[in-house]
Amino acid sequence: LSVLWGMSSVSSQPQFRYTQPPSKVLHLRNLPWECSEEELVELGKPFGKVINTKCNVGANKNQAFIEFADLNQAIAMISYYASSSEPAQVRGKNVYLQYSNRQEIVNNKTTADVAGNVLLVTIEGNDARLVSIDVLHLVFSAFGFVHKITTFEKTAGFQALVQFSDTETASSAKEALDGRSIPR
User: Fold this and answer.
1) Cα(150)–Cα(152) distance, rounded to whole angstroms?
2) DSSP symbol at 12
3) Residue burial 90-107, b: 16+ Cβ < 10 Å; e: rest
4) What is the pLDDT at residue 13?
5) What are the residue boundaries of the RRM domain, all occurrences included (predicted)?
6) Nearest to 41 by CA among 19, 8, 64, 22
7) Contact at 8 Å (CB) between 133 and 150?
8) Which residues are bridge partners to 67 per DSSP?
9) What is the mean pLDDT of the chain?
10) Rounded to an integer, what distance in angstroms lies between the CA atom of residue 104 and that of residue 52?
11) Angle at the Cα of 79 (from 8 to 15), degrees rounded to 5?
12) 19 pLDDT band (50/70/90 cuts)?
């Protein structure tokens, strides 16, 4: 895998965004050091469903990739910040966006569904909004210690990020709960 970082970005920030054809993967630069996956998901959340991220890339670990479920969501994010007077920001730092030259994020692991310790949970159905953080905590803590739960509403429905202490716990929760109903 070879990745080239364009040095022209320094002298021509604005038009640098448009040098790539649209992709559902966006390349972000000038991020705060050790930016987290959660922060990237938060940044992309208003525009659509972020299905994958790759943090802390580049020589200075201040670049990242975010992949949306749909091309139009990535276009919406680029278009919004291209026309906005407010730049994209993470922890008060201006972040520069452009389309990536890749069409998907490939993490250097053997499985396509890369295991991590954070699960993105989508609660579907008419009663989705009635599911509280307490209920989610109860359901997911049956598998192990839950560090953090963040909930948000998207066009896809009611979603939550559930963070476990380790990948194994998250994997077993995903295996057991994916596609299941949450009991009342």
Assistant:
1) 7
2) -
3) beeeebbbbbbebeebee
4) 44
5) 24-102
6) 64
7) no
8) 25, 52
9) 81
10) 9
11) 20
12) low
Sheet strand arrangement including 146-154:
118-123, 157-164, 146-154
Higher pLDDT, 9 or 173: 173
Length reported for the chain: 184
Q: Is 179 left (phi over 0), alpha (psi -120 to 50) or beta?
A: left
Which residues, 6+ apart, have CB-to-CB distance to 54 below 8 Å?
64, 65, 105, 107
Please report the domains of the chain, with CATH numbers, ordered by start residue. 25-99 (3.30.70.330), 118-177 (3.30.70.330)
Token pair, residue 33, equals 């050091």
- For residue 55 the two structure tokens come to 């943090």
Can you tell me the distance from the alpha carbon of 57 to that of 28, in angstroms, rounded to the nearest whole number? 10
DSSP-derived letter for residue 42 is H
Q: What is the pLDDT of residue 108?
A: 52
Return the DSSP state at 142. T
Element (H, E) at 172: helix 167-177
Q: State residue 114's pLDDT score.
A: 54
Q: What are the tens digits of pLDDT across the range 153-183?
A: 766 678 888 888 888 888 888 888 888 887 6
Q: Which two tokens stand for residue 111?
A: 């499985």
pLDDT band at residue 112 under the 50/70/90 scheme: very low
